[in-house]
Amino acid sequence: MLENFKMNNYCHCGSGASSRISNFVIRLAIIYTFEVAVAMSQSVMMVNDAQGGFVYKEFQDPERDRLLYGHFPPNFTWATATAAYQVEGAWDEDGKGPSIWDTYSHQDGRIYNNHNGDVACDSYHKINEDVEMLKSLNVTHYRFSISWPRVFPEGVPSMKNMNEKGMQYYQDLVNALIAANIEPMVTLYHWDLPQTFQDTGGWENDIVAVYFAQYADLCFKQLGDRVKLWITFNEPKVVASGYGGARKAPGLGHQSTGVYRVTHNILKAHAKAWHVYDDKYRKNQGGQVGITLNCDWAIPASESEADRDAADRALQFGLGWFAHPIFVGDYPDVMKKQVLEKSRAQGLTSSRLPIFNEDEINTIRGTADFLGLNHYTSQMIAHHNSELMPSSYSSDQDILGWHDENWPKCGVSWLRPVPWGIRQLLKWIKEEYGDPAVFITESGIAEKSDVEPMLNDTWRMQYYTAYINEVLKAYILDDVDVRGYTAWSLMDNFEWADGYLSRFGLHYVDFNDPARPRTPKASAEIFADIVRNNGFPNPQILSKSSKYLSKLSSYLLFP
Ligand code: GBH
Prior knowledge:
Layout (H helix, E strand, L loop, with lengths): L1 H12 L4 H24 L2 H4 L22 E2 L5 E5 L2 H4 L12 H6 L21 H10 L4 E5 L2 H4 L12 H16 L3 E7 L5 H4 L8 H17 L5 E6 L1 H8 L14 H28 L2 E7 L2 E4 L4 H23 L5 H13 L12 H7 L6 E4 L3 E6 L9 H4 L2 E4 L16 H14 L5 E5 L4 E2 L9 H19 L5 E7 L13 E2 L3 E3 L8 E3 L1 H11 L2 E2 L10 H9 L4
Ligand GBH binds next to loops.
């Protein structure tokens, strides 16, 4: 096995730049340290088999699913994430303006049991509690988002229009994090558009891209001396779905052309914000600006060419929609072709997918210092000739997606753990987009409960162990440039249309108690231990007192 590690690394060494070579040296050093440690441990058995058992009874392919022992690079980013509307509460306090999520969740029947984010986890008043939780998890970073209407209640950003009290919350949070030796990773837009902009079309109106760049500019100016990792948008695909048919704000049902107009403008907004940073702040602040995209891994339902093409289309429509313009230039060919052909057959004279001119293609290309990836699950994908009408982003793809019935279930129906999918997706990204730096910016699993706390969350211990281990394989065995892993979420929070019913937290939050107490679930300890170990030390060479060892063996299957 160790021989294989070396072979793997040698094979990839020819490819490139000096950063790759230093990466390579770090890896060799890790492997070397590992070998020495193993030799010293006198457990000869492990020298030839540096792998452990299986996490899921459903996944026991010996080549694919065995745990790999090893470590991430020394500067690996470990984080948990939240988003403003999901945790802050204080929805109209201290001069905050309404967002489209305030409007949407206050409409009757939109959200499970008419829940809303008015109070949420009350994080606006609980900086200390939140930082204490982060400390207990040993994380190096905290990913949170800024509420645009909290800092610019009218939407339009200028120093004159800035809501000082709102901005002070983020100043205080950033300072508290840094005092605790935790670095902020800040998302500028996690779905809560100022309502004032929605009144004139929201993201369907391209003026919002200009305002977004001004908003980003002022956030860089206010916080960029301390914030070194910026994410412009969280999941533009899901932002668009709120203009299409999904249960998301603003809830418009414009799934034929609206979703494409929205994302066209978001791509422009993202690029403008990146250029603002590049032109005005990069030299002095020295940070990085990326974008976060969500995508499931797509598994061809059969070996047929039609199904393999369909799985590729799922990835091109799912990730390539944004990643291709940013990392390669323009929309993916297959997307342009599909939407144009469908549009013509629907009697339109031009494609429902807007066209970028040369200038726009060049302005958008190259505008990500890293790719943020939100990944939760995988899907089986087959070719399917969709009905011509009604037209939608979904039917434009001519695919059918589903979960294999043998995959384990969890509290939400769209998510089934398929740990090896994250490794496959990371490999695909590396090949498709020229080996970009990737931060996993979200990954996690949910239980459903609004009655009793479910604190012994073995499903989450399994999920994080298996998924993080697959990321380790991508790093060690596939040489993917993966820089960090972020657990969604730090704590249970407002899970959009599911309200407080679906819980993704490492900490349980009691939403019936006005004090919103946070309690660690069992998985918090396991996650903290993986973080502290920076990966998965071989149990044979680990001190017997490790919590990690005793916990692992309590739920892993060792054949
Ligand atoms: C993330 O989206 C979000 O960034 C985060 O805010 C959220 O809390 C977290 O996931 C957990 O959901 O209900 O069948 O219509 C992940 C991508 C896209 C997955 C929308 C769920 C809805 C499927 N999400 N999708 S369905």
